[in-house]
Write a sequence for this structure.
């Protein structure tokens, strides 16, 4: 029982840091004596990512609000790079961030969401839902790889 709980905590911590590899690691390279099924993989990776998103989003929101209220900032100069960044933000929005969130990791996507969409009350739930969708998709791919005999 303790080994199972320690395994879950370990996978939670890994899914906070690098979510993309967790479903593949759980299904294709199980711990010694520990086999994970598809549902367990989705639940563990989804809850770990949700916990990480919540922590890093709230941390980023706090830091960016603190900076906005306590530090004097220079007037923003719009460079070519800034304009292209804003154009991408307006074109793709939160959906674009959710689409690449599993690739860029939980902390980076959460802090970006806090920076770019902190005034949108639906940003945090959308990001959490996006990681659950990613958990299902990546776990399904990993299960398919396991069924055909691919492993690492």
């Amino acid at each position: 029982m303790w080994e199972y709980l320690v395994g879950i905590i370990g996978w939670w911590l890994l899914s906070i840091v690098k979510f993309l590899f967790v479903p593949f690691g759980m299904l294709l390279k199980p711990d010694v004596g520990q086999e994970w099924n598809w549902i367990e993989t989705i639940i563990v990776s989804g809850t770990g990512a949700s916990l990480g998103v919540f922590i890093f989003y709230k941390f980023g929101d706090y830091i960016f609000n603190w900076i906005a209220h306590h530090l004097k900032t220079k007037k923003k100069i719009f460079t070519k790079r800034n304009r292209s960044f804003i154009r991408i933000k307006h074109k793709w929005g939160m959906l674009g961030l959710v689409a690449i969130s599993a690739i860029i990791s939980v902390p980076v996507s959460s802090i970006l969401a806090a920076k770019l969409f902190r005034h949108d009350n639906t940003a945090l739930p959308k990001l959490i839902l996006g990681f659950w969708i990613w958990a299902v998709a990546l776990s399904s791919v990993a299960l398919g790889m396991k069924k055909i005999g691919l492993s690492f």
Summary: Residues 38-70 form the longest helix (33 residues). The chain has six helices and no strands. Helices lie at 2-17, 22-28, 38-70, 80-104, 106-117, 123-147.
